[in-house]
Amino acid sequence: MKIIGNCTLITLNKFIPFVSDGAVLEDEGLIVEVGETKVLRELYPHVEFLNMNGKIVLAGFLNAHMHLYSTFARGFGFGGASPRNFLEILKNIWWKLDKNLTTEEEIYFSALVPLIEGIKSGTTSIIDHHASFGLIDGSLDILENALLKTGVRGVLAYEVSDRWGSDLAQKSIAENVRFIKKAKNSPNKNFISASFGLHASLTLSDKTLDSCAENENKLGSGFHVHVAEGIEDVDDSMKKSGKRVLERLNDFGILGDKTLAIHCVHVNDKEIHLLKETNTMVVYNPESNMNNAVGVPPTIEIDNEGITIGLGTDGYTPSMLESIKVAYILPKFNYHDPRVGGDLAKRMLFENNSKIFSNFFEHPLGIIKKGSYADLVAFDYYPPTPINEDNFFGHLIFGLRENSLNTVIINGDVVMKNHELQKIDEKEVMSKAREIAKKFWEKM
Ligand SMILES: [Zn+2]
Q1: Engineering a disulfide at 159: which of 32, 199, 215, 241 sits with its beta carbon 3.0 to 4.6 angstroms away?
Q2: Which of 376, 405, 423 is nearest to 4 (CA)?
Q3: What is the value of pTM for the model shown?
Q4: Cα-to-centroid distance, 342 and ligand 1 (Å)
C-alpha cells in the first residue's frame, strides 16, 4: 500500500475530476482512494509516501493498436525502388519482415524495444497485433514474456492470413486459439489478455474466414482486424464477394461488440451503419494512415453514429503523445474546418480507449478512480497559464512533451523514475537489439 501524492491530479473521473494538491492511495495494484494529499496522509499516516513534487499526474496512456514486431524495419533500406502504393508497402516491407522473423530472440527483442519506448512516452497498456510467419507456434508467449519483463499490460493476437499459404494460416488460427485459452486461465490476467487476430479481408479466403469464425465462436474473444485501410482492400473484397469489406466480414460473423475494426479509411455510410448495428469498435491511427498515403478515415461520421472510436499507433510510433497530437489536427486539415476533431481526439485518447480496454481486463484502465488499476504517468510540467479539468487537454496538446515525462507507475509499481527505467536496463536491451537486427538484416 502506498500514497502517490503532492501532485496536480487530472483524474477524468467526474466525481473528482481535478485535485490541485492531489494524491491516490494504492493497494495491490488498484486505486483505493483519490483525494487531497493532506487528507489521505492524515487518514493513513503509516503508509509509504511517494512524493511527486508538484508534477502533473494522469492515467497511463492506452495504445489500442500496435505492432511490436515492426522494430527491425527501422532504418532498413529494403532495397530497390520505394513502394508506390499500399499493397507494395505491405509486400515489399511488412510481409518480407514477418516471414523472416524466425527466432525467439528476434521476436522478444523486437517487442522489448517499443515496450520500453512506450513506457518512456507514457504508454502503460497496449493492444498488439502480431505477425511472425517464420515462427508462429508460441510466438504470443514470447510477447507475453516481453510484456511481463517490462511490466506493461497487453492484449495479444496473431494475424491470420492466407498470404503464405493455407498451412501457415491454419497454424496462425491454432496460435490464437491456444493463446486465448491460456490467457483466460492465466495467473497474470491483470497483465495479459487476448483477442483473435486477422490480417485483413484482402489476404483472407472464404474458407479461412469460416474457420476463424467457427473457432472464435467457441471462445467469445472478438476479433482484431484491419479494415479497408487501403482502397486495395475494398477492390479485392468487391472482386471476391461483390460486397464491400465490412459487409463481407459481417457475412462471416467477424463483427461484434468485442471486435476491433482497425482504420476503416474506406468505409461508406452503409458500412458505418453496420458498425453501429453490430456494436463493433474502431481504432484510428492517424500517423500510419498519413505515412502509407491511404487517406483519412471518416472519424467524425463514425463518431456521430455513436460508434466507439479509439486511438492507436499501428507501429508507426510507440508514442501515444505523438498519435494524439496528430489525431487532434488531422481532422481540421481534412475537413477544412478548425472546429472539428478536438473534442473527439480527447474522447478517443481517454474515454473511448478506456471503454475498449475494459473488454479485455477485469478493472478499469485509463481513468483515476477507486477500483481502477494504479497506472499513472507523472510529468515535470509547470503550466505557464491556469490549468483545470476543462482546459487540461489544451495543455496536453500544446505543452506536454515526452522529455517532461518523469515517472511511470503500472499496477502501483514504479517502472520509470527520473526518466530511468527501473525493471530493465534500457541501454543493454538496445545494444543487444542492434546486434540481433544486424544479423536479421543479413537474412532479409
Ligand atoms: Zn495495423
Answers
A1: 199
A2: 376
A3: 0.98
A4: 24
* Percentage of residues in the chain having pLDDT higher than 90: 97
Task: Say if residue 326 is in the same domain as residue 402.
Answer: no
Domain co-membership, 104 together with 235: yes
If asked whether residues 384 and 332 sit together in one domain, one would say no
Do 41 and 29 reside in the same domain of the chain?
yes
Contacts of residue 407, Cβ cutoff 8 Å, sequence gap at least 6: 52, 55, 376, 377, 378, 414, 416, 417, 418
CATH code of the domain covering residue 45: 2.30.40.10
184 and 328 belong to one structural domain: yes
Distance 367 CA to ligand 1 centre (A): 25
Q: Strand, helix or coil at 131?
A: coil
Q: In this structure, is residue 431 part of a structural domain?
A: no
The answer to whether residue 318 is domain-embedded is: yes
- d(CA 299, ligand 1 centre) in Å: 17
Mean pLDDT of 355-370: 97
Domain's final residue, options 337, 357, 377: 357
Query: Which residue range forms the structural domain that includes residue 302?
Result: 61-357
Q: Which residues surround ligand 1, an ion (CB under 5 A)?
A: 314
pLDDT band for 77, please (50, 70, 90 cuts). confident
* 215 CA from centroid of ligand 1 (Å): 22
What's the pLDDT at 302? 98
**If you measure from the C-alpha of residue 4 to the centroid of ligand 1, how many angstroms do you get, rounded to a whole number?**
35
Residues 268 and 399 in one domain: no
pLDDT tens track for 97-111: 999 999 999 999 999
129 SS3 class: coil
In the structure, what pLDDT confidence band is assigned to residue 440 with cuts at 50, 70 and 90? Answer: very high
For 55: left if phi > 0, alpha if psi spans -120 to 50, otherwise beta; the answer is: beta
Distance CA 373, CA 60 (A): 10
The total number of structural domains that make up the chain: 2
pLDDT score of 80 more than 80: no
Report the Cα–Cα distance between both ends of the chain, in Å, rounded: 49
β-strand 48-51 against 192-194: which pairing, if any?
unpaired
CB 266 within 8 A of CB 200: no
CA of 65 to the centre of ligand 1 (A): 6
Q: Answer whether residue 81 shows pLDDT above 80.
A: no
Distance 276 CA to ligand 1 centre (A): 22
CA 372–ligand 1 middle distance (angstroms): 28
- Output the CA 258–ligand 1 centroid distance in Å: 17
Same domain? For 65 and 55 the reply is no
